[in-house]
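Final report, section 2: Outcomes. Of the targets proposed, Paraquat-inducible protein A is the one most frequently requested by collaborating groups, and we therefore present its record in full.
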Amino acid sequence: MPPPSLPELDAPPPGQVLVACAECDQLMYCPVRSNQGIPRCPACGATQQASRPFDPATPLAIAMAALILAIPANIYPQLTFSLLGQPNYYTLIGGAQHLLDSGFWWVGLLVLIGTVAAPLGLLLLILLVCLAWFSRAPTRILARLLKWYHHLTSWVMLDVYLLSVIVSVVKLKDLGDFEFSLGFYCFVLLLLSLSAAMITFNQERFWDLLEERNRARD
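The predicted structure is given below as tokens.
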């Protein structure tokens, strides 16, 4: 006996998109424009954010600023630790290189990926997706870039690195003198810019825009 088929969903009304509730995953129709009212889930009553305004130019500008900040954040020393009058300088890449030289290959690679490669890759993907959107690139290219973005977000660990720096300073402050350098302040600004870029990027809204563009072409 063949399994029962799933019920087909009707096409969304004009000016609305089919979304899943962020709280209970209930399927519902939400207006595309924010001036049509803030929708609520009919099952749990949660306020939906699918109709909030979205401009790809905002994450594009923030991503460009973050990429500029990434240059001094990765090149200049993060902090200087002086022990018995002997200063030691630490950089993002230098810390990973020290772990690799000490034989901790897996830890060194994770630090290099999580603090250098993944954040830069994520910013480049945001930049490429926004530029591809404005240049009206083929849908398959945009969809592939968005999938790469989704997989890469879990590898960014800048906040973990910042927490490790704070813990190290607290534990070692009585053994020597610490001095934060220009690279550390650029790193904090990079972390804030990356967070702002990811928040304003809103990949779910991008998928909705792609679907709207496909329907307009059809």
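The first strand starts at residue 16 and ends at 20.
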